[in-house]
Model the fold of this input.
Amino acid sequence: MGRLISLLAALTLIAACQNQSQPAPTPKPSPTPHIAPAAAILQASDVPPGLGGCAGNGAIDAYIAALQGSNPSEAGKVTDEWLQLVDGGARAGAISVFASAQSACANELGATPSAKAIASFIAQFVDEGQADRAWEAGVFGFVPPAPGQLTPGLILGISTGLGPRSFTYERPSVRLACWRHGVFVALVVVSNLDAATFTTAATAIDHRLN
Done:
């Protein structure tokens, strides 16, 4: 019995020493909140000089409301596109358009034959699965091409520099990028601007998404 008591005492002492030597667990850091779409879209500091911001730049609802005053038909189309994304799980969205002529602001994503313009749109989803399905279905009517349907100027996947779930289309007068980054789907459309401006804009947005 005395030996048993001594053994238990020794085990208790060892356990106490081990407990004392163990560092206190480090609390897990809180996850970094996702950036808001309105903060991730193109800002005035991202675009070349000479392009002015269009009314309503920011949250998608404000953009639609501003567009309703200048082009109700286009506002209706944007509303329909946005509601499709909402049905697919979008929880927030934002859009910005910058153009060399304010008249271009009433057009789809600022696109005109002559005015210089750059537009961006970002939708945030609840999870990556929803974002991926939305990207596959198409954003504002821009659907990723099938791998066997590539045409000149069209690039699909990691060669775009925007990740595996991306595609870009470049022609002299219009350049487009659409991609999925985490829980976000992003779109950039450039009209009558050079390739360097287009690449810089898409990269700036992609670096902000988290």
